[in-house]
Please model this.
Amino acid sequence: MNSLYKKILKKIKEYDTIVIARHIGPDPDAIASQVALREIIKINFPNKKVYAIGSSVARFKYLGCLDKVPDELDNALLIITDVPQFDRVDGTSKEDYAYTIKIDHHPCEDKVCDLELLDETSSSACQLILEFVFKNHLKLNEEIAKVIYAGIVSDSERFLLSYTSSKTFALVSKLLESYPFAIMDVYKNIYDRPLSERRFEAYIINNIVISENGFGYINITNDIIKEYDVDSSTPSNLVNNLNFIKELKIWAFASFDEKLGLYKINIRSRNIVINDVALRFNGGGHKYASGARLKTMDEVMELFKALDERAKEVQDEQS
Ligand SMILES: [Mn+2]
Model:
């Protein structure tokens, strides 16, 4: 593993133009990992041209601005962070680059880049970026430290999720020791929410249907999204909040993405593997946090049935 971090640095040194991309529909870890890596390369190698690309999200502006893909991509290096496959990369394609590197923590069977740092035990892509910095003794500053911290805190749900490890704490401890910043500034950016969103969350809690097997599901229509005056991406941002409800073992939100003309399903569980079920429905993700995009409501109901079945299997095993 150590040599892998060194190899990535060696490749970064070799290229003058570096583009950093992440997944479509980004979360804070996706943007934070690409923005932090861009800034790290910039302050350690001021002569390099580095771009963090992909569509920007107003809500995550505090993590830093994004760039346009440069016109000149002759002999450029592409680094993808927080994304397992190229079909989910936002804003560029593999063919345009001389060399490709992946830094990710999502499970993935296929090798998609020339060089890959894939660690499924990492809490976040930002944790891997932080390891990369420390292992190579690279310079950092307080601004970048905050961005990395935001990514780790957000993806681990404030160190709540199971991938939080002694390594996560050791790295974060070293980060805070080296670059002491006010952590409340970071939390304010991530966690301050408008009242409309909390009311929308209450709607979900009040209306989620829970089966006798402990599977909860809700179809969130665009009329409801309009009524509560929230963003269409809000359901995805709230899905983790249903953790620690005793009666819920697996839960899923369905909402309709009008731009794509597809149902978007967010699935979560408490320690029950679900990504294999999602995979069967053309989706994927982490063991306990997955998703899928489906064409019809019938397919959505099929997926819900399979998830309910998974909850039942676990319940039967335990009784
Ligand atoms: Mn992530």
User: Anything to note?
Assistant: The chain is about 40% helix and 20% strand. The radius of gyration is 20 Å.
